[in-house]
Amino acid sequence: MSKPDSLRLSPRRLEQLHAIANALDLSVTEAVTHLIRREIAAGTIPAAIPGFNVHRVADGILIQIDDGPSKTYSVESARALASTLRGTVAGEAGVFSVQHGYSFIRLGRGFKLTAPMPGPEVSMTGDLAIDLAEQIEKAAE
User: Which of 11, 27, 51, 130 supports an S-S bond with 1, CB 3.0-4.6 Å?
Assistant: First the structure.
């Protein structure tokens, strides 16, 4: 996946975005996440996260990030990963799980996921990690 783009908005639109953020007591970044999640809930766009392939297969949950290697996690391991994502974002210590084959750690204000481990790492925000946890949990139902 390419590196993030900058977003150019007219000053009037930016002011409106700030107004949405202020009204919801959110940062501007959180307001953008809120708007995206609202459109997912409305069915405007799918819940899938671009660059993350998460789906149920016969023997577990397949997870692939971008063009990296895929790994089929047992349902137990996938649920452990989802729990780790949520817990670490909430302030718990990051996890290097040799048993389950992933790591998720806090890195500055963001997070770094390695799945499968060893393998390529991907940086992400906490809100994206929570959305990924939801995708994993849905696949594991």
Answer: 51
